[in-house]
Write a structure and sequence with these properties.
Blueprint lengths: L29 H20 L4 H4 L11 H20 L17 H4 L5 H23 L16 H27 L5
Helix pairs in contact: 1-6, 3-5, 3-6
Amino acid sequence: MSAQSVPASRAIWVDPEIDPRNIAEPPVGEVTTLRQYLDHYRMTFEMKCDGLTPEQLASRSVPPSTMSLLGLIRHLAKVEHHWFRRTLERQTTLPELYVTDDEPDLDFDGAIGTAECVTDAWESWRREVAHAREVYSGYDDLGHTFVPGEPWELRAVIVHLIEEYARHCGHADLLRECIDGRTGE
């Protein structure tokens, strides 16, 4: 079951029988624990955005902030891309997502409420999440560094992403509540 198939509700609780984040057993070991926490936050974020129109997703918070759920989708795609492709794999010739020299905040500033923009954002996010999973699925040693002499261990990147998603899930919770009153998990 995906986050997209969870019934919409204003309740703060999701039935464990239909919650895609529900795991049968608690995680064992550092690798499994960190991967499951990251996936939990990714699914939580996706659930926060589920069922909204492009206009609702692009709805801004309070001025002067340009933060919106659509901007957060684009931002998190950019973050996944940056850490896994550009930092760990050193694919520095790839263009950065949603940023230019003239517009460093294009992830938020360019988040407009059209179906095309929403489709592009979700496709980018899903592509980068799938790539990140592919990258870290082959490693049981979270102390692995991808480039000899570089300080970034896989562990540090995963922990950073957990922190990034946790913060932005909080933002998403408040944004969603302002849009339609839906709160919670």
